[in-house]
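Friendly challenge for the regulars: who can give me the structure tokens for this chain first? No prize, just bragging rights.
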Amino acid sequence: MIAAPEIPSDFPFPQDTDTRFSSDTDFSEEPDGRSTVSAKGKGGKKGKKAVGEKGKGAKGTGRLNGHHQENGMENMMLFQVVKLGRSAMQSVVDDWIESYKTDRDVALLDLINFFIQCSGCKGVVSGEMFRNMQNSEIIRRMTEEFDEDSGDYPLTIAGPQWKRFKTSFCEFIAVLVRQCQYSIIYDEYMMDTVISLLTGLSDSQVRAFRHTSTLAAMKLMTALVNVALNLSINMDNTQRQYESERNKIVAKRANDRLELLLQKRKELQENQDEIENMMNAIFKGVFVHRYRDSIAEIRAICIEEIGVWMKLYSDAFLNDSYLKYVGWTMHDKQGEVRLKCLTALQGLYYNRELNTRLELFTSRFKDRIVSMTLDKEYDVAVQAIKLLTLVLHSTDEVLSPEDCESVYHLVYSAHRPVAIAAGEFLFKKLFSQREPEEEGAPKRRGRQSPNTNLIKTTVFFFLESELHEHAAYLVDSLWECGAELLKDWECMTSLLLDEPLPGEEALTDRQETALIEIMLCTVRQAAECHPPVGRGTGKRVMTAKEKKTQLDDRTRMTELFAVSLPPLLAKYAVDSEKVTNLLQLPQFFDLEIYTTGRLEKHLESLLRQIREIVEKHTDTEVLEVCSKTYHALCNEEFTIFNRVDIARSQLLDEQVDKFNRLLEDFLQEGEEVDEDDAYQILSTLKRITAFHNAHDLSQWDLFTSNFKLLNTGIENGDMPEQIVIQSLQCTHYVILWNLAKLSEGSSRKEDMVTLRKQMRAFCMMCQRYLTNVNTAVKEQAFTILCDVLLIFSHQMVSGGREHLEPLVYCPEDSLQGELLSFILNHVFIDQDDETNSTDGQQDDEAGKIEALHKRRNLLAAYCKLIIYCVVDMKTGADIFKQYMRYYNDYGDIIKETMSKTRQIDKIQCAKTLILSLQQLFNEMLSELGHSFDRSSSSFCGIKELARRFSLTFGLDQVKTRDAIAMLHKDGIEFAFKEPSPQGEGNPPLHLAFLDILSEFSSKLMRQDKRTVHMYLERFMTFQMALQREDCWLPLISYRNSLQAGGDDDTMSVMSGYSSRGSSVRSKKAKPTTAAAATAAAIAATAAKRKLPEEESSSSSEVWQQSMQTPVMMPSPHLTSTAMREPKRGRDDSYMGVYPLPHDQQPPHQHTPQHHQQQTPQHIQTPMDYNSQVTWMLAQRQQEEARQQQERAMNYAKLRTNLQHAIRRGTGLMEEDEEPIVEDVMMSSEGRMDDLNEGMDFDTMDIDLPPSKNRRERSELKPDYFDPASIMDESVLGVSMF
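First reply, four minutes later:
Bragging rights claimed.
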């Protein structure tokens, strides 16, 4: 095979007439464009017919315009047949070959139209075009007839039918070459024409032509590679036969056979040369240009097919001249293309015989493959790891330890396919060296098992990774490739229990702890058959084989650990960490094995060991695991229930009796508390509380004893904090277990009354402990109190539990106040206030994180009360106002709370939001005084918080209409509520709040802005409308926000239409040249230039209308832009606060004199008509100049971008130039949440696009926008007019 990169673009075919051709010319045309009939050899192969030459007799009359008739029925065209995919492709190709033999011009015309139609082009190549026009002219004509109204074409249209079309299209090309491989492809006519056509189409600016022709050319190349491979095999066989015959003695040698074999070898060589020239034509004319195409799908096709060529015909293609294209493309910026590179390389590395040819490539591109294991596309990362596994399988010396370590840590990845691939790599690298077992020798078990060293290696790797809490992830990663190793529990228990063999090093304490943790994770994985938390996408339906494997594993683990677990517990009884993991094993047992396997004595031993552990340990985690183990063993479905229940009752009897006895002595001692007695009470209470979490201990009446203990703590005030905390928790469990029994509906009325009394008494007790001096006690009381209030709220009667209605408890206002005060005093505090650690900076940071976690839990507990309406929603104002200050710590919790409250009641939520802003405003006034600076950080912070709040209302103004109206109403009333302390004529005390309220004006609809403006005028006096001093600027700004932005929603709808239309046009419009794209962009820019002129004319009407009412004219200090569209003036029916007679002078001619004296810098004399017009014209000129400058800058940017686009589209790289690519590595920053993002709630549903919203608004009944309809008592609950 001739190496493609070294062949010039114009290369000769081996033929008698020296005809040269390039990728953009017709193979069968002379330089002057005339058709010739080329003959080869003895004239057995015919060239293209002359222009006037006819077909062969009457056999061609059955075809007309690409169709042929058979038995009087017109058959479908090739495109339709392939599209439907109903006929066998073999018969379709055979029919075409028969037609080609009959009249090859007509048949070839059918094939050309087939490729044109497969590209989605509606044009048809006629016979005259085919005879008289060159390929480039035909392609140009087809480009002109291409339908650009739709950006879709057969290869990109969605749907199952078109997916099958791509498969049928590729199959047709493969079958066509296979059926023509013995004669037709060598006639120097059919293949030359097809290759020339596809090469020209692949260089087209039309994506559909380029994509379709590239796919066809690459599949054609693949089919030719198969032909070349067959020819190579036949040549080798012929050569062997020739050598064998020639080596015979002269008497036995057949000269005729030698001559025949020699002639056959010559013909095969000629065919091989022709096939190679065809392949070189396709490679140089299509692949070299399209492997770096701007479309990722086209690049992916090229790389996928070159991988097939190198795998099929490695002798010709598997060299560095072709491998370099795959290596360069691994840097592609599209994950789809990078993925094809890796899959192509996997097919090569899988065959070990090819490894020697890949050595140079591996050394050159190994680092890139290793880096792709961290690719941002998970599919690419998975295939990169699999490729490295194949590399590792072929040779162990290529990858350095650093390369392997970069893959090792991926076994802890949260993405399960990546972790499994990394686990397979780790298993092959570390666990492939197994001790061979001798044939016939008994299988070694336990410590002598061949898995012993492998299990130790697993432990060593786990410890060295320093991710001790992620053993479940390591086990899950290795499960698919090393399940047999990980389920060798007999070897694991032997390593823990048996003494080490002579010369063997024993496991350290740390290694034993790690081994026990890994053993527990393997047992859990085998019993549950699903990945750990964070890796699974949901429960998967297990197959019958998997279910059988699960049952077998549970049986085997139960039989093994039922015997070995008691000795393990006895050995490690004093080690809390080891015992905690070991005690979880019985939760995965098949308890029936204890009976069927006659393992009752081992059950007794297990219960005895658990009891001893309960009596020895006071660690909460150990005690809770013991409680869960008893709960798992106490299953009434199994016969061992009675035995376990008796053991559990005996244990609890002893603990409860001990607690009551110690408590009685403790209460009789009075004020002095003995430390030993306190420790005994605490340890016993911990055991009881841990068991009460999973077991019903109602028969021991623990409420009375615990209530006495808590009451004594309140009276004396010196009760140890841990005793109080455990007692509160235990009492809480008592109430919950009593409620659980009542929920079943089989209880007595006396039990209901008793529980009601206990619950209310307990709530009062917790409320009293909220004022305890100890912080831990207060936090425990608060958490439990929030849980109890939530459980016994009105929600408990839902779901058919109406009989529990007497238990519903609504907290009093005093209790709600204490809960809120606790949150404000213990949650919204500075971090330094909680810092008490002096053990170093690391411990200090850990303490801060733990303290923050506690505070977040406290805030979440209270926010649940708000969400479920247990406390008044207005109390959320004190929470919401802290959003900006404590955004990093509690921003997500407050954000979710606002979202949930809005779903419950939009109007009440809006009132809560405005209340929080009012509270912050009052706090600022008390801190800074009445004459504060509106540029101060406090005021700006409140305004920023209002802006964040406004973003939470989303874009659908119809949904939030009532809520926004109520918000403005409350804000206006608050602004004018308090008169000025300086007397009449001065602004109200809270007037600056209107500046904050203006942040919500953009959320008002146009009709509602007029309504809110009218409501604002009810609070204004005539003199207020005339003021222009700085202290009145909030009022002026707020009025401007209600007037100037009246048409914002209309403009947003228009922009929604335009943006959506532009996106559609961007898909449809495909300029064929860069000049066309530039012309379109300039035309669009020129069209945009007309808009400001129209806006200016509209603005002039606004100014003319606004001058009729100079009282409502915006202040010159705050107006910087012209109106977008003309607004209507006031209706004749409008009446202001002070109606004016028709004969009265305009109000702007009377200005109070005292204002001139107080603020001489502001001219309060009325502006006459000419002054107003002059000022407004100056404002318009400034605005037009600014807009013109912005348009010029945007146009310059547009031209620059277009120039870059044109350069990228036309400027192809040199053939051997390595492409410049982007970095496609994973970034940890991309996975982190941006804490500084705006208040765009995920829960805010915007179910209508802007255009549809606009349509809905126009269909609403007119009286919906009437002020009396939006702000009457039925909607807002407050009478406004």
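The beta strands are 11-12, 20-21, 63-64, 67-70, 73-74. Residues 710 and 765 are 8 Å apart (CA to CA). Your move, everyone else.
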